[in-house]
Amino acid sequence: MKTKDLLNIAEKYGSPVYVYDAEKIISQYTRLTEAFKGVKNLKINYACKALSNTSILKILNNLGSGLDTVSLQEVQLGLLAGFKPEDIIFTPNGVSLEEIEEVAALGAQINIDNLSILEQFGALHPNVPVCIRINPHVMAGGNTNISVGHIDSKFGISIHQIPHILRIVQNTKMRVNGIHMHTGSDILDIEVFLYASEILFETAQHFKDLDFIDFGSGFKVPYKEGDIETNIEELGKKLTKRFNEFCKSYGKELTLAFEPGKFLVSEAGCFLAKVNVVKQTTSTVFASVDTGFNHLIRPMFYNSYHKIENISNPKGRERFYSVVGYICETDTFANNRRISEISEGDILCFRNAGAYCFTMASNYNSRYRPPEVLWYNGKAHLIRKRETFEDLTRNQMDVEINIIKKEKELIK
């Protein structure tokens, strides 16, 4: 997308607005599959919690992707978007047995990450194959909130509890058809990932009827010029070699599965916001925009970096600004950031806004969630309308209130 295209979208659909480039999603998917083309059976399951708009899901389904889900509702969205049940894996955390049974009834692959549910589900449904999520006790990820494979994590079953897993499997006669891990997001060092993979290979040897091994994801994407990213091509060469060796020793061609989310959609997304006020204080110049952490919470929640460009004045003299939102709490997107000179009414573009941005948006301060636009085949397509006041009140129920009337009667 060109700058003029983004400006036209902001003018047509208003601001703030999310915009996604379909071509970038396609190129990222192709890059990942090319890196692992030496694997006979490769399955990419898109982690739809990153961006769950059904139009995005349809793009990935058409590419041949499967779907990684964490809730019954995400499974239902996947089915609505055209995914076959067998191409959906359900990897929840801390959900009820009833929810897992509902998903199993829909035909999706079940992935269980705790001993309690594993034993209960196995006893009730021994003929339903399940995948088991292992916690390899490996610290990986760019932030403590997104590092999920370490010893203190709530995710997965500890590798030290393998004997307990095996006892449950033996007692229930359940079938384990997959082994899974996910160490965390924003992985910088592929050697750490490969180390965790060795733990998964060792664990897999305990299960003789596997169909696949799921290595999770967490591949880091660049957020600014010169930024470090996961070397997918190098990882592809090294893990492909090791995976093929394991399949040979295991005596069966298994499927190598990944569940990328951010890697596929982060760079495809832009978030456009209009500058309401440029405010000079004694020490800072604030650029206040028509959005806040109700629409984009990642900088406040994860301390994440989003490149911010003034697309209304891209060649202007650079000055230092703190970009802040309109929420009545501190909602700073960037501190003391060099940006082309900003005037009130300018449109700012937040890059890397495709993953965990709209999906984490809320109606805080009773603000409407923004629209979503897909840039596809050189045209802008509205894929979610901006919310209205009716959307805010749709599920609220009126109750007759007579408190004031009663107080008046008491005074009399």
From TrEMBL:
Its EC number is 4.1.1.20. Residues 18-354 form the Orn/DAP/Arg decarboxylase 2 C-terminal domain. Pathway: Amino-acid biosynthesis; L-lysine biosynthesis via DAP pathway; L-lysine from DL-2,6-diaminopimelate: step 1/1. One of its GO terms (biological process) is lysine biosynthetic process via diaminopimelate. The keyword Transferase does not apply. It comes from the Bacteria. Residues 24-266 form the Orn/DAP/Arg decarboxylase 2 N-terminal domain. It holds the Pfam family Orn_Arg_deC_N. Homodimer. This is Diaminopimelate decarboxylase. The gene is lysA.
